[in-house]
Structure formats: structure tokens, C-alpha cells
Amino acid sequence: MKSKSQHCRAFTLIEIMLALTIFSLVLVLIYSTWTMILRSTKVAQIAAAEVQRQRMAVRTIEDALMCIQSSQSSLQYYNFLVQNGDAPMLSFVARLPDDFPRNGRFGDFNVRRLTFTVEAGADSGNDLVLRQNPILMDMDEDEQNVPLVLAHNVKGFTVECWDTNALAWSDEWDDTNSIPPLIRVTLALGGKDNSTGHSTPELIVSRMVNIPSVILPTVIQNGTPGGGGGGGSGFNNNRGNGNGNNNRNNPNQPNQPNPFNRGFQRPGGM
User: Fold this and answer.
1) CB atoms within 10 A of CB 129
2) Does residue 123 carry a pLDDT above 50?
């Protein structure tokens, strides 16, 4: 007859240690998977934020270029400046809408000079920044010291203008008193984000802007007889000689050709 102790079996120490080891390995695998998921999510969020910031930066430049303006009678205030290389810069004057960034700081001064530059940021990376000042005013100290940061980790910022003579893109624009018909802006972001310690892939976006405005001629802004400006009408009632000299019978006006009525003569000699 068997004793009672022979019917009861227990785990040995080796079996318990083996079970604990397997359980520990399972916990380590679960923790590693969870950590990998968290890291991947954070990297994805950083990449998405960089893409969104890049799009917003390029959209700001694009919106500003669509509002560009220039006047021939005040060229000293309306210079169009482009600089590429180690210290890229884009500067021009635009009549900005009310929803443009930082518009509330300038009140009713919607005609402002915009200056986009790439400068060293606080985290040892390069930032794309924007400074603004009303066209007839100097830039204040706050705007100079604390510009609007449009993008971080800038790897490159290139502005190209369409040269109508060479029929090619040029990274230089020597004719600062004129507006190029086409402008191509390329912005590259990426690299290591020093604030988070994560590396993001390089992202490059390029936009080509067809400038809708041209320089305002002096004859239109100031107005001259026969020029269609504020001081004259489109036609002169004085009888012309067929060569555009419609001021022969007017003693108050000099005898000079009218560029807007060149070669024009009313039917019937009127």
C-alpha cells in the first residue's frame, strides 16, 4: 500500500527558475517592442512636424512674392535683392494682406519690406527667419533681435530668377531695380534635431512663382498729359501732327512726343 506522500508532486527549484527565466524574457520582449513603437511614433511625429513647417515656410514666401510691388519713381525703397551661397538672403517690398504673419505688430502699414535669411539657431542648427519693417521706417529693435522663425534645421535655401535674355534660371539678380518674371525657391530641411536628439531625413521642396505684378512706371504714378495718370487723360484734345506731338497748340506744354499716342491720329482730323 502506497503512502500519502507518494501521491503529491511539487515543482523542483530548477523548474521554478526556468519558468522565471522564460517569463522574464517575455517581459523583456514586450518592453522592447513597446519602446520601439514609442520611438517610431516620436520619429514619425517629428518628421510630420518638419514637413508641415517646411510647407508653411514655403507657403509664406510664396504668398509674399504674390504680393510684391515696386515703383519706378521710388526705386531706392523698392530694391529686389537676392543672395545665395553661405549666407542666402531674399529681400523685397510687398503689400501684404491682413492675415500675413505678424501683421498685428504693424497696424495699417501693409506695405513692408520682407527679408528672409538663414541664420544660426539656438540649437546650433540653421534657421530660416523673416524680418519685416514698414517701407519708410527703420526696423525696430524687437524685430531685429527676435525675428519670426519659419523653419529649423535648414540645410539649404536657394532663390533663382528667370533670366529673359539667357532664357535660363540664374542664382544672381543684378538688376535690383526690376522684378523678375519668374522666381523659383528651394528649401531643404533635415539632419539631427538637437532639441530631441533624433535624426530626420532630408526634405526638399521647390516652388516656382509666376510674379503677377510689374514695376509701376513713373508716368502712371505721377501722371502726365496723355499718359493716363492722375494728371492727364488718355487722349489730348489738341490737334496732333500724326507723330504724337499733340501739344503744339498748347503754350503751357512743351513740344514733346507722347509715348502713349505715338502714330495715332483721330479719323477726320479731329
Assistant:
1) 18
2) yes
Q: What is the CA radius of gyration of the chain?
A: 34
How much is the pLDDT for 266?
A: 36
Residue 134, SS3 per DSSP: strand
pLDDT of 124 higher than 50 = yes
> Residue type for 244, please?
G
Q: Are 200 and 46 in contact (CB under 8 A)?
A: yes
Burial of 131 by CB count in 10 Å (0-12 exposed, 13-18 middle, 19+ buried)?
buried
Confidence of residue 63 (pLDDT cuts 50, 70, 90): very high
The number of helices, as runs of H, and strands, as runs of E, in the chain is 3, 9
- Which of the 8 DSSP states describes residue 68? B
* CA nearest neighbour of 244 among 229, 223, 266, 222: 266
The candidate with the shortest Cα–Cα distance to 259, out of 209, 220, 213, is 220
Residue 7 has pLDDT above 70, yes or no: no
Give the three cell numbers for residue 259: 509715348
If we measure between CA atoms, which residue out of 156, 118, 106, 128 comes closest to residue 60? 128
Distance of CA 150 to CAs 44, 59, 86, 257, Å?
Answer: 20, 10, 18, 51
Whole-number pLDDT of residue 198: 53
User: What are the strands of the beta sheet with 81-83, ordered from one edge?
Assistant: 81-83, 89-95, 111-120, 126-134, 148-151
In the three-class reduction of DSSP (H, G, I as helix; E, B as strand; rest coil), residue 128 is classed as strand
Question: Are 218 and 230 a contacting pair, CB within 8 Å?
Answer: no
